[in-house]
Structure formats: structure tokens, C-alpha cells
From TrEMBL:
Organism the protein comes from: Duganella margarita
Lineage: Bacteria, Pseudomonadati, Pseudomonadota, Betaproteobacteria, Burkholderiales
Gene3D superfamilies (alphabetical): 3.40.50.2300, EAL domain (3.20.20.450)
InterPro entries in alphabetical order: CheY-like_superfamily (IPR011006), Cyclic-di-GMP_PDE-like (IPR050706), EAL_dom (IPR001633), EAL_sf (IPR035919), Sig_transdc_resp-reg_receiver (IPR001789)
UniProt protein name: EAL domain-containing protein
List of residues that carry 4-aspartylphosphate: 67
Length: 416
């Protein structure tokens, strides 16, 4: 793999390799030189690495690439120290041991994004795999999702004013049929078009709305826009799409809100089958009786119901069995990397088996690699959603995206 120096966004960046084997350390240094890194430091264990990083604190290291198993201080302890002391921007962990040990690092990063983990690699590390992980630096910088730590929340007054000015709008992320590569639906994701700060993700405002009566107005504003977009897409000749919209716990348990919601849809002329209401296990559990009642009403009217983030709650299977869901959305924690990690694979298989046995559509969230796509398709997953396919986009971009990416998506569906 020949990569011109000018094409690498990390060209000239400072990096530290932590590896107790001199041979392995030299090999990793060689890979980093091929990728045009600048100053490359070396350390034989975690303690030596921390001493070096403290000395270089004024000119922060861009990347630490560390082995997992080392004498003195192992890679897990080093990872924790790097997070606590804030000594490096990015981290990659490598190992020749049981892949489930690397999965511990991946899970730590899922719980705490401040670790800065780009990913993990099994030895022997390949240049292409290393370059792919490094490309996530750009993805993370361009990501519309908020980076950890959680952004400062807008005040209730700011959110109320934004609602009055109709500054909240839906963006849409496509959901692709895995066997055909065709666009089958989209998920509506809230964004705030702030007049001074630009486009803001839910991390800036959703916690402010949770538990407050304004959540109902916020949801209805988004749904009203979604309905308008559905009608526009129909006029533009797009195939029938099911649009998923998230409902909060308070939405789901409030009968008067459900009345307002269904009245809005009926007045629009959009068929209920065009909408799927997404709820989490937490929202169902909070007020179980009222939630079950309202979910039953929504299903009787012809709406779809999806259980979001399946697998992360303590009783997901129990709640899924007792509720009238039409769709099972498998959380990205069990999808991303499932082709590599045995534990995730087993949970993923179990979730897909459950969905298939109950005759509901299965949707995999967080599909980011071709390997995960192939695995999901071979396991019989129905729909996929994730950055491999498309990032969230404004409604006006959807038609153009579909026409542009149609061939690529069909190729994904048909690849061996």
C-alpha cells in the first residue's frame, strides 16, 4: 500500500509506540513511518510511556499505539492512566491474545469516549487496517454527533424560544434492505439550526427537554415536518418509505399526547403505515401499564412500533415479548465489530434469532464496516443503518443521495 505523504492528515504528527518486544516495536514503528508520521517515540512498558508523556505534556502526543500485555503496567492500566491524565489525543491498542481481551478495551471506550480510542487490532498489525483506524480521526472531527464530554445543555428558556422560532428540524439516516441494497426507510433525527452556533445535535438540548411538558411540543413539531417531507418524497417519485420517529417515555405514557399525535397524522393524509414510532425499554418500563395501552392503540391504527437499542436493558427480551413491536433495532454496541468480537457475535445472533422467530423486522444500527455488513446479511438481518451506508442528512439531500448511491448499495448487497 503506497500512500503519498501529502494525502495523510496525520503527516508529521507525533506518536508513541508502547511495546515490550523490541522486534514488534520496530515493526510498528516501520508501519507508522510508511504512514508519514513525524516524530516517533518508543517505550517498553506503561510506566516508561507515562514518564515520557509527562515530559512531552506541553506538546501533546497525537497518538499512543500500545500493546495490551506488558510487564510492569499492562495496556488496560495504561489506557486508564492516559484517560485520567489526559496525555494523548488518540489511542490504538494491539494484542496477540484472546480477542475478548481487546473487546474489554472496546467496551471501556463505549462507556467513556474520553478514552479517545480509535480501535483495536490483532497482531500481526496490517498497514491497511492501521490506516483504516486512523481515518476515524477525520470521521470523528466531521461527525455531527457530539463528542464526549457531553456538551453544555441549553437552558429551558433557550429551548422554548427555539421551539417558538421553529429552529428544530429533522435530519434523516437511511435504512437499507440487506438482501437487495434498496432504500426501505429512514430514521428522523432531531437537529437544532441555531442562529449563532449553527447546526447542533441532540446532545445540546435533549436532556433539557426530558421530563418537561415542552417535549410534547418538540416531538409534534418534528412529526409535522416529517409528514411534510413524506408527502414531498412521494411527489418526487421516491418508493414508499417508512419513517422512524423517536418517542420519549413521557410521550409514550400520555394518552392526550397520543391523541394529538394521531390527529396530526390523520389530518396530513399520510398513511399510518408510513410511520414507525421508536421507543426504548426504559420508556416502556417507566409507566408500563399506560405505555402498553398507548402502544396497543398505535398498532390498532396501523402504525409501526420499534424497540430501539435492543440488548442494552436488563429485561429487553421480556419487554419485547410482551409489547406489540413490528421492528427490532439492535444496538450498535452489538453490531459494530461483531465480525471481529466473539461476544458481540453471540448477542447479535441471539437478537436476530428472536426477531426472526417472532416474525418482526430486524434492523442493525451502527453498521460501519463491510465485514459487519457481510456478517449481518449472512445472518439474515433485514435492514441496516450506519455510516457505511449513509450519515444523517437534510431531507432535501435524500433524493440525490439515493440516485447517486444506488449502484454502490446494490453492489454491497450482492458481494460475496
Amino acid at each position: 500500500m503506497n500512500m503519498p505523504t501529502t494525502s495523510a492528515p496525520w503527516a508529521g504528527r507525533r506518536v508513541l509506540v508502547v511495546e515490550d518486544s523490541a522486534v514488534q516495536r520496530g515493526y510498528l514503528v516501520g508501519l507508522l513511518k510508511q504512514l508519514a508520521f513525524g516524530e516517533i517515540f518508543e517505550a517498553a512498558d506503561g510506566n516508561e510511556a507515562l514518564q515520557l508523556l509527562e515530559r512531552e505534556r506541553n506538546d501533546r502526543i497525537f497518538l499512543v499505539l500500545t500493546d495490551l500485555e506488558m510487564p510492569g503496567m499492562d495496556g488496560i492500566e495504561l489506557t486508564c492512566q492516559l484517560r485520567e491524565r489526559d496525555l494523548a489525543e488518540n489511542l490504538i491498542v494491539v494484542s496477540a491474545r484472546d480477542p475478548r481481551l481487546l473487546e474489554i478495551i472496546e467496551n471501556m471506550a463505549c462507556e467513556d469516549a474520553s478514552i479517545g480510542l480509535l480501535g483495536t487490532l490483532l497482531k500481526p498489525v496490517q498497514l491497511d487496517s492501521l490506516a483504516l483506524l486512523l481515518s476515524k480521526v477525520n470521521d470523528r472531527n466531521n461527525d455531527s454527533r457530539p463528542a464526549a464530554p457531553t456538551p453544555a445543555q441549553a437552558s429551558l428558556e433557550e429551548v422554548a424560544q427555539a421551539l417558538e422560532r421553529h429552529e428544530f428540524l429533522p435530519w434523516f439516516q437511511p435504512k437499507i434492505a440487506m438482501q437487495s441494497g434498496q432504500l426501505k426507510g429512514v430514521e428522523a433525527l432531531a437537529r437544532w439550526q441555531h442562529p449563532q452556533r449553527g447546526l447542533l445535535s441532540p446532545g445540546y438540548f435533549i436532556d433539557t427537554l426530558e421530563g418537561h411538558p415542552l417535549m410534547a411540543d418538540f416531538t409534534l413539531l418534528l412529526v409535522q415536518q416529517v409528514l411534510q417531507h413524506i408527502l414531498h418524497w412521494q411527489q418526487a417519485g421516491l418508493p414508499a418509505l417508512a419513517v422512524s420517529v423517536n418517542l420519549s417515555a413521557d410521550n409514550l405514557s400520555d394518552r392526550s399526547f397520543i391523541d394529538r399525535l394521531t390527529a396530526l397524522v390523520m389530518q396530513s393524509g399520510v398513511a399510518p403505515a408510513s410511520l414507525v414510532w421508536e421507543v426504548t425499554e426504559t420508556s416502556v418500563m417507566r409507566q408500563l401499564s399506560q405505555a402498553l395501552t398507548n402502544m396497543g392503540r398505535l398498532r390498532l391504527m396501523g402504525f409501526g412500533l420499534a424497540m430501539d437499542d435492543f440488548g442494552i436493558g436488563y429485561s429487553s427480551m421480556q419487554q419485547f415479548a410482551r409489547c406489540p413491536f413490528t421492528e427490532l433495532k439492535i444496538d450498535r454496541a452489538f453490531v459494530n465489530g461483531a465480525a471481529q468480537w466473539p461476544n458481540r457475535l453471540m448477542v447479535l445472533k441471539s437478537a436476530l434469532d428472536l426477531g426472526q422467530s417472532l416474525g418482526v423486522a430486524t434492523v442493525a444500527e451502527g453498521v460501519e464496516t463491510v465485514e459487519d455488513w457481510k456478517l449481518l446479511r449472512d445472518l439474515g438481518c433485514d435492514l441496516a443503518q450506519g455510516y457505511l451506508l449513509a450519515k444523517p442528512m437534510p431531507a432535501d439531500d435524500l433524493v440525490g443521495w439515493m440516485r447517486q448511491d444506488r449502484r454502490r448499495l446494490r453492489a454491497l448487497a450482492g458481494m460475496e
